[in-house]
Write a structure and sequence with these properties.
The protein is α+β, with helices and mostly antiparallel strands. Helix content is about 40%, strand content about 25%. The strands form 3 sheets. Strands 1, 2, 3, 5, 6, 7, 9 and 10 form an 8-stranded mixed β-sheet that branches. Strands 4-8-12-11 form a 4-stranded antiparallel β-sheet, with no helix packed on it. A two-stranded antiparallel sheet has the order 13-14. The protein is rod-shaped and about 165 Å long.
């Protein structure tokens, strides 16, 4: 009996030891053990004498409208960084360890990076610090941050509002040169991802390019990454607010060509009202203030020129009609003025004089020629002004929608060859 009892006791003790051995250690205890001799001041590969490779990703959650006055835009993004740190590898860890502890961020080494073209930046704290650190058993570290940043975007507005813009987000190493740390875009297909429901009020996002670069200064060479957002401005708003109203005003100014030449009040009122209206629209249009001429300035200037030319045309026609086309003053010049005793002028017209009849016929014929000339100018203007405005439209839209776009594509392709992909 005693032998049986001892055998049962020995088997139970063996099973309890196996159970203890099969229980996995606490991951937090293992992490605390790894951090005891951890030096966060040195890079993970400093002992090997090589640079640490850091892989980055952007996820753009939202992007605000571009401010043309300050030339900047605000975006809400997730920054993902991956690197290998063998000092935090341990075979006792069975699965990745996810932690959202800001103190852990201070305890381990992480890339010292910054955004060179960022004006302002905020770290998201609602409802808790928006960060995540994932430690894999093999020592791979994933560090995720949520940031709200305001980036500068130096825009070229010479083709406004038919322009395309390329705004960049640049990330660079702050203190580590390329001998200690090198930034890379993630090896996934899309290093920069944009939310599917992302929409901007003024632009349409065409494509996103991710390139690798280097920043040289007197301190050394620093690794950097550049993400460019190629956007095209939506023209529908400007087409309704600027182009169509000004085009209609120009067409309204041509109505005076079909009005009677002697209808001075009507033609003057029409010309002045259209000129003041289109001038007020040109000055009241909400366009960015620049030191150079923009596409909208060329359009509004041409429209004002066409309306002003219509007003000048009527002035010339009316002057010709009222001065050269009048018969009465020429008939009075055909007689010879005499003076009576009271000093008053009397025009003596010899009705039966052949010379007088010739002068009258000549004066009438000359006046009719000038009137036909004035009327002919109106008739020619009915064709010349619409034809000239149509030619201007063809040249304007052909250049800014086709030729200028091809030039920008050529310049973009030339600039891309200067950047290391």
């Amino acid at each position: 009996m005693i032998l049986v009892f001892l055998s049962i006791l020995a088997s139970s003790l063996a099973q309890s030891n196996k159970t203890v051995e099969n229980v996995a250690p606490d991951p937090l205890v293992v992490l605390d053990k790894l951090l005891r001799n951890y030096d966060r001041r040195s890079t993970p590969t400093s002992s090997q004498g090589v640079a640490t490779d850091v892989f980055c990703e952007f996820y753009i959650a939202s992007m605000g409208s571009i401010n043309t006055d300050n030339m900047d835009y605000t975006t809400d993004l997730y920054l993902k960084q991956k690197w290998q740190d063998s000092r935090l590898s341990d075979t006792s860890l069975q699965e990745p360890l996810d932690l959202a502890d800001p103190n852990l961020v201070k305890a381990i080494w992480k890339p010292e990076i910054f955004f060179p073209n960022a004006k302002e930046g905020d770290f998201q704290f609602v409802t808790m610090p928006n960060l995540l650190i994932r430690i894999h058993p093999d020592g791979q570290i994933l560090y995720i941050l949520r940031l709200r940043l305001k980036f500068s975007c130096m825009m070229e507005l010479s083709r406004y509002p038919l322009d395309k813009q390329a705004c960049g987000m640049m990330i660079s190493s702050f203190s580590k040169t390329t001998r200690e740390m090198i930034l890379h875009w993630s090896k996934s297909e899309e290093s920069v991802t944009v939310a599917k429901d992302l929409k901007m009020p003024q632009f349409t996002l065409e494509k996103v390019t991710a390139t690798q670069c280097e920043d040289y200064n007197h301190m050394g060479s620093y690794s950097c990454l550049m993400a460019k957002f190629h956007m095209k401005r939506s023209i529908s708003f400007h087409l309704i607010q600027n182009y169509l109203p000004s085009m209609l005003m120009v067409c309204i100014s041509w109505v005076s060509f079909w009005m009677d030449i002697e209808s001075v009040p009507g033609r003057v009122s029409l010309g002045v009202i259209t000129l003041l209206s289109i001038s007020n629209q040109a000055s009241g249009t909400n366009v960015p203030q620049t030191s150079y001429v923009k596409a909208i300035d060329i359009w509004m200037g041409a429209c004002i020129a066409f309306v002003f030319a219509a007003l000048v045309e009527f002035t010339f026609v009316n002057y010709t009609w009222r001065t050269r086309g009048r018969v009465a003053p020429r008939i009075q010049q055909a007689g010879s003025p005499n003076k009576c005793e009271n000093g008053d002028k009397i025009v003596r017209i010899e009705m039966e004089s052949p010379r007088f009849e010739e002068n009258v016929n000549s004066a009438v014929l000359n006046a009719n020629c000038w009137r036909k000339f004035a009327t002919g100018i109106d008739e020619i203007s009915r064709i010349i002004f619409p034809l000239g405005f149509a030619v201007f439209n063809i040249i304007y839209w052909l250049y800014y929608l086709i030729i200028a776009q091809e030039e920008s594509k050529f310049l973009d392709s030339g600039n891309s060859t200067l950047v290391v992909e």
